[in-house]
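Issue 218. Parser rejects a valid record. Input:
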Amino acid sequence: MKSLEDVYKDGENLLCKSEITDAKLDAWYLMEYVFHINRIEYYMNPKKDIDDSLYEKYMRYIKERAKHIPLQHIIGVAEFMGMEYIVSPDVLIPRQDTECLILEVLKYANNKSVLDMCTGSSCIITSLAKLCHLKCAVGVDISLRALEIAKKNIKKHNVNVELIQSNLFDRIEGRFDIIVSNPPYIKSEVINELMPEVKDHEPITALDGFEDGLYFYREIIKVAKNYLTEGGMIFFEIGHDQGDEVKRLLEESDYHSVQILKDLAGLDRVVFANL
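Output the parser choked on:
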């Protein structure tokens, strides 16, 4: 029979051998998930004996992570904006970078109607609906499988969000005060250079922005003004090197007061403008 300390070391060692980034941290997260313990409980009694069946369960999950399956797919959830979101291989795993987008939209969204284009897990529109009062909240995605996950998250967080299956604006009616989007923005040629956790396990349709990574920005910007109220606002998450190009696209389509915001790492992350 192994102790908690032994179990943790076994998990960490296997992840290190498999060259998993943050092996120590992921081994700990799986400890929390399987043994339902926090760090205080662990350090109070690291020599505590662990039942063999629980050890085997833990190592099954460790072996999955060692294959570069994302931790969030193994445990089925991801943390975002201090909330837990259901995820699967059908949706992009919510990233901390996207919290910068949420925090900026929140400054303008109260009592407004908001459309979230390319909603995926619905983490953007659900977080907005949870954290402020929205007059109307709509999430749009082309993927029915993604919308099934989005539906579960909306129910989980008990918010009023309408979901629409649509290829961008094809099936959208009406106008909104705010349109927000974290569209696919990675250049096609770069996809194969991404970490295995991303390129092999997250939906390519949520990653691939085609040749220059800007395809969806062009398409959304070109049409969005037909779905914005007068003086409405549009917000995008962007790749770290896309700020100037997305700003140019917005200005060429007669949006004004275009601003580029940086994330906590000092990289361009959000572009927004007024119609």
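Fixed in the parser; the record now loads. The first strand starts at residue 2 and ends at 3.
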